[in-house]
Amino acid sequence: MKLLFTISIFLIAITSTYSQSLGYQDLGILFSQNDEIGSARFTGMSGAFGALGGDISSININPAGIAIFNNSAFSGTFNSRNSAITANYYENSTTNKDQFLNLSQAGGVLVFKNIIDSEWEKFAFGFNYRITKDFSEDIYARGNSGVATFTNFPLDNNDPAFEYNIAEEQIFSTNYSGKLSEINIAMSAVYQRKMHLGLSFNFYELNFSQQSQLTEFNTDGNGNNLDANLYQENYTNGAGASFNVGFIYKASANFRFGMAYQSPTWFTEIIETTNITDNEGYFGDTEITVSNENTIYDNTAGGFFPSQEVLYSLKTPSKLTASAAFIFGKNGLLSFDYMIRNYQNMKLSNDNFAQENQFFQNQLRNTHSYNIGSEWRFDKLSLRGGYKFEQNPSKSSKGLNNLKGHSLGAGYHFGSFKLDFSYNNSNQNSTYNFYSGYNVNPSELEIDNRTFTTTITLLL
Hints:
Mean pLDDT is about 90; it is low at about 1-20. This protein has helices at about 25-30, 40-45, 355-365; strands at about 75-90, 90-115, 120-135, 135-145, 165-190, 195-220, 225-250, 255-260, 265-275, 280, 280-285, 285-290, 295-300, 310-315, 320-330, 330-340, 345-350, 365-380, 380-390, 405-415, 415-430, 445-460. It contains three helices and 22 strands.
């Protein structure tokens, strides 16, 4: 499964000069990511369902797959994610661990057979809710870069004023929360028992927030100390839509192939409310204390909390998926998906985003990814496994910054219902630059996500 918060914003430096929070180019990439969350069968095979179908979560890859169902079915999925992010910052390493529980998928497929006398033998209608991306993550880093950025006390009455330009330590923490969720409505039909055609419409709800705090401990070299805290926050909400179209062709009883296109997601109105605005020269809530003064500088004293609202639009990358599946009778199967996403065609609008859009065109690339999955059946028991690879969109990224993951799963058919389980582990290296505009190295991140998924499917 995808880094469920692929912070891979990922090797991309923050562009807001005074901001420790994510810049708009980073948010654009983040909101374009897809964790491929789905049913336990789907995740147990690393999402390789483009030519396979027969699972409600295949709507997200190729809507033609819902016509593979022989009977109507409904399913619901819970997942538990254990996240560990290790931040390495100037030879100091810290690890932050979290656990998150979600209702990650719920949907169903209605199958109609032989309702008209023609070569169209089967029709299927599908609907599905899922979490496209779970943003929840925490990063904590501490160390000493040797660079002090808070060097003066605003209430200093000394002449000349003291200069606290010797850095002793920096501490940075940031918390992400929220989700990008979607509802899929799909239709599919089978022509002459070989060609499966499908179309889906997808509707998205975006909720994202980030709270960041930077703390510096500096000194003037004469025994006087300065402690500074900068707090930034933003809250983002929006809605979007896209569509998928695809086909699956059964070339023989043992081989099928498919192709699917997913349009860009058009977020026509994203609203961000943030405290990252100029407040006495500081971009965020700021508090500074010094050891040789009895006063505290606080730019929010008296309940003054300035904020600004930004309204913008976003077009995310489209995706093309080519798929193949080998079916070994009732014994097992092997499935393969290959995806291309055109990150260079991303676009922010409704504000002055010329620099960000130029970044998308010049610094990002079209990515290549693939998923491999397999399933083997032993009477009513099924065993599964999979592997996935996803290329980092940044042209400057290295091999370690690509996402790699593997999965295992099992399921049991009880007759009127099925119970499925999966385990997924994904790893990726990344960076976070919380000192934009200064000669300070970013924090190196090692990200590990382990997800346990459970699905119950009712068969009609």
